[in-house]
Design goal:
Elements (H helix, E strand, L loop, with lengths): L23 E4 L5 E4 L2 H11 L2 H8 L3 H14 L4 H25 L3 H8 L2 H32 L4 H17 L3 H12 L4 H8 L4 H9 L7 H14 L2 H13 L7 H30 L8 H5 L3 H4 L3 H32 L13 H18 L5 H28 L1 H4 L6 H29 L4
Helix pairs in contact: 2-12, 2-13, 2-16, 3-11, 3-13, 3-18, 4-10, 4-11, 4-12, 4-13, 4-18, 4-20, 5-16, 6-7, 6-16, 6-17, 6-18, 7-17, 8-16, 9-13, 11-18, 11-20, 12-16, 16-17, 18-20
């Protein structure tokens, strides 16, 4: 390459890590040539990273999430609304910390846990994630089966088909497109805010319960409270959010956009969750815990009338299919990161055997167990309780990692954020331990 005498030769450097190759050569006045992302490439990257936070948060409004929120409205009317406001704040803080770790380190949570803690601590964290996620994958396929049964299709037919479809979408490289389709289908649950208005709830009570605590000191309320934490601040959501921004090549320069994506996704998902509680409370509140998907669909009658079950089924199909892919992917990301092998949905099976193999095994187990006869609502809420018990383990790791200046430098938690996040983690941990304690004591007839 020739240059003018007064212009030094250009020094070509490789793309920066995690840049995804989105770079271009630009000549600067000093005569050198530097590598920077082109404006067009930057736009595409912005569009690419605008997703992991939204996908992770909205995957929480899956079959188990809908069952838990609807059961809260059915069983306790509006008395869990203030609790949900607190959970929303916790989700915003946790999701933001997850994407901050991903963008500033270029590594997922499992990889960071492996590097910053002992092997034993890493094994404990991954064991908790796998235990909780396995139950959750089962619930997602059970949700798909329940949704199609509302449409008159046997679950014994549709669950195997859904499992093969989700597996093929991820393995053959079209998952990113399918992800958008699942999100569009899950938009059916936007009918809940409308149903919350058309259901004519007692808005005075709604407002009062949103700003004033109305806790009940009973085991059933505690059980549902932990389930609400489990379905809203699920460990897989943080694992997926951090791994998602890394997989898409985002770095520290992209953090502001990833942060907006994470926070907006969390707030949007929780607004939908709160309106599910309000709509269900207005429709059948105070009756009893839910027992079927058909009962959960009753809250949509003010919007869809006789077609309420169809609308509910469509939303449940999209949400469950989305989570049916996200949950096993989060487990596969975690294990692969901890082991240090290739992990990306854009890789072929021969390039990422462990990552895609783990995904495949979880899908098979989830679909197989979902075909067994078990009460759907009991299964869904039970998995969220398990998630709620496991959640503090992952949150403690996230909090410690984001507090470390040796890892994040100036991007580490500041004093105010550290206190707020610490309070959230302690409160969630206390509730989980309290539930676990009362459950154990109950076995001995003490509680």
């Amino acid at each position: 390459m020739s240059t003018r005498e007064d212009e030094p030769a250009a020094e070509l450097r490789p793309p920066a890590p995690n840049s995804g190759g989105l770079v271009s050569l630009t000549r600067i006045r000093s005569g050198g040539i530097r590598l920077i992302r082109s404006r067009k490439s930057r736009i595409w990257l912005v569009l690419a990273i605008a997703g992991p936070g939204v996908v992770a948060a909205n995957a929480g409004n899956d079959a188990a999430g809908i069952a838990t929120y609807a059961s809260a409205g059915s069983q306790f009317v509006y008395r869990t609304l203030f609790f949900m406001v607190l959970v929303t704040i916790a989700l915003v803080l946790v999701q933001e910390m997850a994407v901050r770790l991903g963008t500033h380190t270029g590594k997922g949570l499992a990889a960071l846990i492996r590097e910053e803690f002992t092997l034993r601590m890493t094994a404990i964290a991954l064991g908790c994630v796998l235990l909780a996620n396995t139950g959750l994958v089962v619930s997602e396929f059970a949700g798909i089966g329940a949704a199609f049964e509302l449409l008159g299709v046997s679950r014994y037919i549709i669950i195997p088909i859904a499992a093969v479809a989700i597996w093929a979408l991820v393995l053959f490289g079209s998952y990113r497109y399918a992800e958008r389709i699942f999100l569009i289908l899950s938009l059916a649950f936007l009918a809940y805010p409308i149903a919350a208005v058309l259901g004519h709830p007692d808005w005075g009570q709604v407002g009062l319960n949103l700003v004033v605590p109305h806790f009940e000191f009973s085991k059933s309320y505690l059980l549902l409270g932990v389930a609400l934490i489990g379905t809203t601040v699920s460990p897989y959501m943080q694992l997926y959010a951090a791994a998602g921004v890394v997989d898409k090549g985002a770095d520290a320069a992209d953090y502001p956009r990833a942060r907006i994506d994470a926070i907006s996704g969390a707030v949007f998902a929780c607004i939908v969750s709160i309106t599910i509680i309000i709509a269900t409370a207005a429709a059948i509140g105070g009756a009893s815990p839910l027992t079927s998907a058909a009962e959960a669909a009753l809250a949509l009658k003010p919007v869809a009338g006789p077609a309420a079950e169809v609308l509910f089924a469509l939303g449940l199909i999209g949400a469950s299919a989305l989570a049916g892919a996200v949950v096993p992917l989060s487990s596969a990301y975690a294990i692969s990161e901890a082991v240090g092998v290739e992990r990306s949905v854009s890789r072929r099976f021969t390039e990422a055997r462990l990552f895609l193999g783990l995904f495949t095994v979880q899908v098979i187990i989830g679909a197989a167990l979902a075909l067994t006869r078990i009460n759907l609502i009991t299964l869904l809420i039970g998995t969220q309780v398990l998630q709620g018990i496991v959640t503090p383990v992952i949150l403690i790791y996230i909090l410690i990692l984001t507090n470390r200046r040796s890892l994040l430098g100036r991007a580490a938690n500041g004093p105010v954020f550290r206190i707020a996040a610490g309070i959230c983690v302690v409160a969630i941990s206390a509730m989980s331990l309290l539930l676990l304690g009362t459950t154990v004591l109950g076995f001995f007839g003490v509680a």
